[in-house]
Specification:
Number of helices of chain A: 12
CATH class of the largest domain in chain A: Mainly Alpha
Chains: A mainly alpha (258), B mainly alpha (274), C alpha+beta (337)
Oligomer: heterotrimer
Number of strands of chain A: 0
CATH architecture of the largest domain in chain C: 3-Layer(aba) Sandwich
Radius of gyration of chain A: 22 Å
Strand content of chain C: 35-45%
Structural class of chain C: alpha+beta
CATH superfamily of the largest domain in chain C: P-loop containing nucleotide triphosphate hydrolases
Number of domains of chain C: 2
CATH class of the largest domain in chain C: Alpha Beta
Order of helices and strands of chain A: HHHHHHHHHHHH
Number of strands of chain C: 19
Helix content of chain C: 10-25%
Largest interface: A-B, 84 and 81 residues
């Protein structure tokens, strides 16, 4: 295939994949009241307005909370699990692996409905708590997978050497293992954060009046209002994700963990 | 490998127990409801009722159709794009690959919303159509199957490209030139060498895209609305509009069965064809 | 030239901005076994891939058997190529690998079967039909790759480093195999190698390449005995090469008066051409190793290190001792450049 053909195909594919974002960015810069492209005049007023909408402020705070603490919780139970699955000859390790990976396989909307009906309602769990638990469960498979793969690249005899040199097992973990899988943990955190922050289907049924994650709030805002503020917000969120991933890639070569 | 099993189990247990209690149990109960009547007796009545309604049938087949179309189209585009990416010099390969992965990190709401700007009544496409005089009034592009198809394709195409690129990178060096020298046209090279050697990537990518398209909520909700329902949006309606939990459970079961059988069927196809 | 079977005329090959082969001219005769010899990066593999049609030349012409194939795609050239990595199809059995090209010709099944079986028999792989390439040894994979090319009855068979992935014993076996195949079929073969002993042993003619240009072209005997340049001499085992100034030899380390005057640019000696034990010069032995029929010395001299072979009958000089040596005009090769 000639060089020209290659670039035509790749150009077309990338335009399809990324082009729409560029349009959203510009649509959010409209000076007019209605969503249109090309925008009617240029201004940043919609970008500014996003920050003043109260429901966006609240839902952004909730999404941030879920993404940060849900992921941390998933890492707190996921790292020991990944370590155990890698370093111990466990009975039923395949079963444990399957159980922990299950939340990826089951469609999100089913998860949300099931949790609403058979966890939240019977146990009378608060909405925030329910969302927190759900996001933890959804992020857990990523945490276990990414940490596992960086543990896999770490030779087990390093710990044995540390123990022979006088470390306790716990010290061997904190002094030898942890520093070496730091990159993997950070990558797992970023992947978990992005997954949780962008999650919609599972949170759909669990969100209640006044307590919504940001993407769901955007969905309901879109149903009522047809102004460019959602375009502006979409663009801002896209920038945020891209910036996080870009920095992560620069700092630790994020993509090799994913 | 450490031998102290109870220590290992103690480390793995919190994660397993947590997932089991707050995830598998509720989902399991929900799915079992799909086989029960209101009084709690076991029956398949839920399924019979569900499929007896024409709307439900339409939605079921539409979901299946869109899933297959999106998976098939992304396979075709995916092979072209992956072949190009693999043949790039190393530095630009990394960059282009990064651009393909990038959209996966961005909120699906934002990704889908872009299509409203493009396909809406005052969107670019309609501006062009009216501007060129092809139509006096804007054409309805949103809330069509085509819109949902385009949205889903854009959402899931990267997954196909990624898995095809990684399986193409594993094709042994010089195998393609060898087939060329032995007289194969590019067409024959693809079907006799590249396809058989990348079928694993195709199966993985195909499963990801198909199940992704089947279980996507945002795209059919935004681009299809209530005019073009898919199983996910139908499920949402059953719960939030008609409070029909049996139908919702039935749909949940159907979705899960479709996902798993897609996986099985694709695996079978891949291993039968040499 | 009139009776050339493969003819490369003013061939220029480049990757992007870098020119790998500038303006190459080469004629290969029918039935000839020719070696493209040179260090890595000399353009030999690039030239071979261009003959196969895997690379399109920037300019120049490639004529095979009277047909200009410069713009003919690889799949229409009727040329065989045995890759260095063998490039066997991992998803196909040995039989299907050999039958691959025949099936593309849409031949009747019986004919495909007959020719494939005959091809596998030629290389001694009868009985391996159902094996996958991964289940075969390196030597068997090599022969399978050879059979896969041969069954197509190509006009020209190209081989990329055909012996480099084999151990010493298999290498000899394969060398004989290639010579036998060439005798039996009379096929024109072009093979690429960086190993001069391989080229000397197999080829009818050797094309020594450097930086995309032909450094010297000739029969193995010519190249072995009369390398024309320092590069060729070095490649052919003249390991002691010195500049000549009047009656002195000069290296970047020093000079040595030899008592005769040579009206040439450089002189070169093989280790076997250097006299040890007698002679006008002395050097200190810095290494000495037994090599069967002779002993290999490295001597420290005013010119730097000199490699010299001594007959095994002469008494061994221990490391650190001084020894007399000679660089006689009689065994020297004169070099112009």
């Amino acid at each position: 295939m000639s060089r020209l053909t290659i670039w035509i195909i790749l150009g077309a594919t990338l335009t399809f994949l990324i082009g729409p974002f560029l349009i959203v960015i510009f649509a959010g810069m409209s000076a007019g009241e209605a969503l249109a492209f090309p925008p009617q005049g240029l201004s940043l007023k919609w970008y500014a307005k996003v920050f003043t909408v109260e429901s966006f402020q609240a839902s952004f705070a909730l999404s941030m909370f879920l993404a940060v603490f849900g992921t941390i919780a998933a890492l707190l139970i996921g790292i020991p699990a990944a370590y155990a699955l890698n370093r111990y000859d466990l009975p039923g390790s395949e079963t444990i692996r399957t159980i922990v990976a299950a939340p990826i396989i089951v469609p999100g909307i089913i998860v949300g409905l099931a949790l609403l009906r058979y966890f939240v309602v019977p146990l009378n769990v608060t909405i925030t708590m329910a969302l927190f638990v759900t996001h933890t469960a959804l992020v857990l498979p990523y945490a276990v997978r990414v940490v596992s793969s960086s543990l896999n690249n770490l030779r087990a005899d390093m710990e044995e050497a540390a123990v022979i040199l006088g470390c306790t097992r716990l010290q061997a973990f904190t002094k030898v293992v942890l520093p070496n899988i730091r990159g993997g943990i950070l990558a797992a955190f970023i992947l978990g954060f992005v997954t949780s922050f962008n999650e919609v289907p599972a949170s759909l049924f669990l969100s209640g009046p006044g307590v919504r994650t940001l993407p769901i709030d955007m969905l309901s805002y879109m149903e009522i209002t047809f102004d460019p503020s959602v375009a502006a917000l979409s663009a801002l969120l896209a920038f945020m994700s891209v910036a996080i991933v870009f920095i992560a890639e620069r700092l630790l070569g994020f993509s090799r963990y994913v | 490998m450490f031998l102290n099993r109870s220590e290992g189990l103690a480390l793995a247990l919190p994660a397993a127990l947590f997932t089991f209690l707050v995830f598998l149990m509720p989902v399991g109960i929900l799915l079992s409801v799909a086989f029960q009547t209101d009084t709690g007796a076991w029956s398949l009545q839920g399924y019979i009722d569900f499929f007896s309604q024409p709307l439900n049938q339409t939605v079921f087949f539409r979901t299946l159709k869109l899933g297959i179309l999106v998976a098939g189209t992304s396979a075709v585009i995916g092979y072209l794009a992956a072949f190009c990416i693999v043949n790039l010099p190393t530095t630009s390969r990394g960059r282009i690959f990064g651009l393909v992965v990038l959209p996966l990190m961005i909120s699906p709401v934002a990704r889908t919303y872009a299509w409203i700007v493009i396909l809406g009544r005052t969107g670019i496409v309609n501006d062009v159509i009216v501007g060129l005089g092809l139509s006096d009034t804007p054409i309805r592009l949103l809330f069509t199957e085509t819109a949902v198809f385009i949205g889903l394709l854009q959402l899931f195409l990267p997954l196909m490209i990624i898995s095809l690129v990684s399986s193409m990178e594993n094709i042994p060096k010089d195998v393609v030139p060898a087939a060329r020298v032995l007289g194969a046209s590019w067409f024959q090279v693809f079907f006799r060498v590249i396809l058989p050697l990348t079928k694993e990537g195709l199966v993985i990518g195909g499963t990801l895209v198909f199940t992704g398209a089947l279980t996507a909520y945002i795209t059919p909700a935004i681009l299809g609305g209530s005019k073009v329902l898919m199983l996910e949006t139908l499920l949402y309606q059953k719960v939030n509009v008609s409070n029909d939990f049996v139908s919702a459970s039935v749909i949940a079961m159907i979705l899960i069965v479709m996902c798993f059988s897609a996986n099985l069927v694709l695996k079978r196809i891949a291993s039968v064809k040499r | 030239m009139s009776n050339a079977f493969v003819s490369l005329t003013d061939l220029t090959l480049s990757y992007g901005q870098t020119v790998a082969v500038p303006d190459l001219n080469l004629d290969v005769l029918e039935g000839e076994l020719i070696a493209l010899l040179g260090p890595s990066g000399c353009g030999k593999t690039t030239t071979m891939r261009a003959i196969a049609g895997l690379l399109t030349p920037t300019s120049g012409r490639i004529v095979i058997d009277g047909l200009d194939v410069t713009r003919t795609p690889a799949n229409k050239r009727g040329i065989g190529l045995v890759f260095q990595s063998y490039a066997l199809f991992p998803h196909l059995s040995a039989f299907e690998n050999v039958a691959f090209g025949l099936r593309l010709l849409k031949l009747p099944n019986a004919q495909v079967r007959a020719r494939t079986e005959a091809g596998m028999a030629t290389v001694g792989l009868t009985g391996f039909e159902t094996r996958k390439p991964a289940e075969m040894s390196g030597g068997q994979q090599q022969r399978l790759a050879l059979a896969r090319s041969l069954v197509m009855e190509p006009k020209v068979l190209l081989l990329d480093e055909p012996l480099s992935n084999l151990d010493a014993r298999l290498r000899l076996e394969m060398r004989n195999e290639l010579q036998r195949v060439q005798k039996d079929t009379g096929i024109t073969m072009v093979f690429v190698t960086h190993d001069q002993s391989e080229a000397l042993a197999l080829a009818d003619r050797i094309v020594l390449m450097k930086d995309g240009k032909i450094e010297q072209l000739g029969t193995p005997a010519e190249l072995y005995a009369k390398p024309a340049t320092a590069f060729a001499a070095d490649f052919m085992g003249f390991e002691n090469i010195f500049r000549v100034e009047g009656s002195e030899l000069v290296s970047h380390l020093g000079r040595l008066s030899v008592g005769y005057e040579a009206k040439v640019h450089m002189l070169a000696w093989r280790p076997s051409g250097v006299g040890v034990g007698t002679g006008p010069h002395t050097g200190r032995v810095i290494s000495s190793s037994f090599a069967g029929g002779h002993r290999e010395y490295v001597l420290n001299s005013p010119l730097g290190q000199i490699k010299a072979d001594a007959p095994i009958e002469t008494p061994e000089v221990p490391i650190g001792h001084e020894v007399a040596f000679d660089l006689p005009m009689a065994t020297a090769r004169s070099l112009a450049a």
